[in-house]
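FIELD: query
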Amino acid sequence: MNEKSLQFVQQLIEKTEKGLILWTPAIEDGQFKTLLGQGELAFVVQVKRNTRQPFLLDEHQETILEEELNSDDDLVRASVEKLQEERSLRNLYDKTPHGDFPTETKPALLFEAIGHLQELARSKALKVNQRLAQAEEILASLH
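FIELD: result
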């Protein structure tokens, strides 16, 4: 699991929540994309059953970053269990800063972050589609 993937996904969540990033549906179900920079990078997030994937592609559609996490994978499952245990202990003793989770929980944190980002992207993409449909209705009524 790439630490940069987690940081990047968390940054995208923050920017999406602030409304700084527009999302659109991508080719496959459960997949949403956004363009970054001046359009030279595309970021795609996908959730399909138990698998969650973020992709970062350059302008030539070459993969710069790709992660695939599956909740059935032993490492991810163990990480999710460890993260749940950590959260449970923190709720009881709340002495450790919330952002300072042990390294073995990073796959679970990324798994959760990808799911959260995909839900945000889906919500934003639906709003964009609604606005486009409204604009088309307005244009059609003008003719």
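FIELD: remark
The helical segments are 3-17, 74-93, 106-142.
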